[in-house]
Amino acid sequence: REKRHLLHMNSDELFQRARQTIPGGVNSPVRAFRSVGGTPFFTESARGAILTTADGKDLIDFVCTWGPAIHGHNDPDIRAAVAEALDKGTSFGTPGPLEVEIAEAVVSRVDSVEKVRMCNSGTEATMSAIRLARGYTGRDKIVKFIGCYHGHVDSLLVQAGSGALTLGKPDSAGVPASFAAETLLCAYNNFEAITELFSKYGDQIAAIIVEPYPANCGLILPLEGYLAHLRKITQEHGSLLIFDEVMTGFRLAMGGVQEREGITPDLSAFGKVIGGGLPVGAFGGRAEIMDYLAPDGPVYQAGTLSGNPLAMAAGLAALKKLDSGVFQNLEAAGAKISEALRSEAKRQGIPLTINQAGSMFALFFNPDPVRSFDDVQKSDTERFSRFFHAAMKEGVYLPPSAYETCFLSTAHDEDTLDRAIESLVAALRTSA
Ligand code: KE4
After folding, report:
1. CA of 151 to the centre of ligand 1 (A)
2. Catalytic residue among 141, 226, 272, 403, which?
3. Is 272 tagged catalytic?
4. Which mean pLDDT values do the consecutive 10-residue runs of the chain (432 residues) have?
5. Eight-class DSSP state of 292
6. Among 56, 165, 305, 333, which is 20 to 30 Å from 415 by CA?
7. Three-state DSSP class for 27?
């Protein structure tokens, strides 16, 4: 009776109930709608580009579960692959053939990756990558950029983006000052600042970790030559360059941003798409560095469910469905919706800047170009909140924070996109 009852509650009832046993009523802060206000809706089911809420509403989804659903929700091929794996059991705690298959699938798609290790989230991937960089170089300092978010790793929750930024507390409680002291902060897209940082600390810096296209403070694109500058300066000082491609990997190109920009990082972190909707993270790079990992090397890293067959089956199915046509279609869809909204905002005299790359785009209520975290901060987040709720009324679910990025999937077909554009244009007008 209890369970049946839960399934028939509406979102408000579920949220009140959830808050009694789950902190904030959510299992991840950004889902709580704190930054846009109101109470979150609960999702009952999802298919293609549509989320069906516990209130029986269908929403066109531009969050795509924060990236994984590049083929849309409930993709039949991914579902079939998981069902097939399920028949054989769920987790063996021993190596299995699917792990070899997905490792080879990653290595064959990302030039900079010679060896890769699976884990269970993007956070584990970045946490492991920085531990490996410290073990490999024997150095302690890590450089991250203000506004970038790499998961809830203690030493990276310093001036982080995403939920940390949304909550207005970029630095998390519970992180000892001694941990944060090993993290050096820098402004993204500022050539001099990173050069100066390295001239001061270069020989202590194990690595730079960077979202090559920062997507946890809205979406920011690199200035011409900036990523090459990071590559050069790390090489000059014997530090590693870690690309956090948890969001962009296998989404913005088969080989992610490193393929788009022609930059070879030393290590990369992956997640989201590579799990096909199940919990997966991964990190990889040159064999010479990856071989420092236990059991061969001195850097310990582990995970009970790392490489579990269900998640590997989902991830493999998602990777196998990716081809150049998918990326071309997603690029065209991203450009189409961005262009449509830019021209409508212009027509309505609304100060709206949209940064877009492939199937990712971010909306800033800001009359000027947004190329740095400082520019992001000048955007009107209050207006974003009004727009978010107006879009919801029109049946479109945008990320519930101005510090996130919108995602498209291959399920956002022509008709869905046109309906979404119509709704968002109406929402621009009603939220003026
Ligand atoms: P997870 O541990 O949440 O799987 O991945 C952490 C992570 C690492 N690196 C980047 C670039 C990321 O964007 C993320 C997670 N992204 C957020 C969305 N901004 C996940 C959503 C959430 O926190 O609920």
Report:
1. 5
2. 272
3. yes
4. 76 97 97 96 98 98 98 98 97 97 98 98 98 98 95 90 68 85 94 95 97 98 98 98 98 98 98 98 98 98 98 98 97 98 97 98 98 96 97 98 97 98 97 92
5. T
6. 56
7. coil
Residue nearest to atom 20 of ligand 1 (CA): 66
Catalytic annotation, pick one of 244, 266, 375, 403: 244
Please give the Cα distance from 321 to 69 (Å, whole number). Answer: 12
Which residues form ligand 1's pocket by a CB distance below 6 Å?
Answer: 28, 30, 66, 121-123, 126, 149-151, 162-163, 211, 216, 244, 246-247, 271, 281, 404
How confident is the model at residue 167, as a pLDDT? Answer: 61
Phi, psi of 272 (to 5 degrees): 55, -95
Q: Which residues, 6+ apart, have CB-to-CB distance to 120 below 8 Å?
A: 279, 280, 281, 303, 305, 306, 311
Given the residues 149, 188, 397, 403, select the one marked as catalytic: 149
From the list 34, 69, 129, 121, the residue with the least C-alpha distance to 273 is 69
284's enclosing H/E stretch is strand 281-285
Lookup: tokens for 376:
């992001």
Q: Which residue carries 């692959």 as its tokens?
A: 81
Cα–Cα distance, 248 to 373 (Å, whole number): 19
For ligand 1, the distance from its centroid to the CA atom of residue 369, given in whole angstroms, is 25
* Residues across the chain: 432
What pLDDT is stored for residue 5 in this prediction?
Answer: 81
Sign of CA dihedral 208, 211, 214, 216: negative
pLDDT for 270 = 98
- How far apart, in Å, are the Cα atoms of 138 and each of 58, 130, 133, 307? 52, 12, 8, 28
Name the residue among 306, 319, 311 with its Cα closest to residue 117. 306
pLDDT digits (tens, 9 = 90+) for 210-254: 999 999 999 999 999 999 999 999 999 999 999 999 999 999 999
